[in-house]
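Supplementary Note 2. Why include the ligand at all?

Several targets in our set were suspected to adopt different conformations when bound, so apo predictions alone were not considered sufficient. For every target with a known small-molecule partner we therefore ran a joint prediction. The input for FE2/S2 (inorganic) cluster is given below.
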Amino acid sequence: MLIRLNINHNSLSIDCRPDEPLSAVLRRLGFLSVKCGCAKGLCGACTIFMRERSVPSCLIPVSAVRDAEIVTLEHFMQTEDYLDIVSAFRKTGIELCGFCNAGKIFAAHEIIESGSPREKNTIMERLRTFSCSCTEDEPLVHAITLAAEIRRQRLGSIKYGR
Ligand code: FES
Ligand code: FES
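The joint prediction is reproduced in token form.
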């Protein structure tokens, strides 16, 4: 059946089964930042950003997202929000292999946008939702805190807690 999706600010009609995982549909459309991993919501390789959350697209049937704006890493990489995060990751020596980088980057974005980057436990809790063999929690917490500070300075607002 034809399903209309909003992906990266483009409206597309997709011929697919309603129960097909969103991750499979996105890959078929060429959004290869969405990777095939565990297919159980555990590894973060298929992460997208939707409804203010980083979410595993392997767990979402495509019919459930008709009215949502889906953002993939391809699009997010063109934003200044992304540059804040990669800049902080570089400065703190975080290196991602590319397997679950969408998961890490969108989790960082979600944490920063939630306004709680100074609360270490909140960050740790969010990061533990999926495993990653490239990074450890402590350096990531440091990197995300720095990314939040970089964003705060760029935006010049009190949005992030000052
Ligand atoms: S493939 Fe979706 S979380 Fe692992
Ligand atoms: S970035 Fe997570 S396993 Fe490499």
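Residues 96-97, 99-101, 104, 132-134 surround FE2/S2 (inorganic) cluster (ligand 2) (CB under 6 Å). The mean pLDDT is 91. Comparable summaries for the other entries are listed in the accompanying table.
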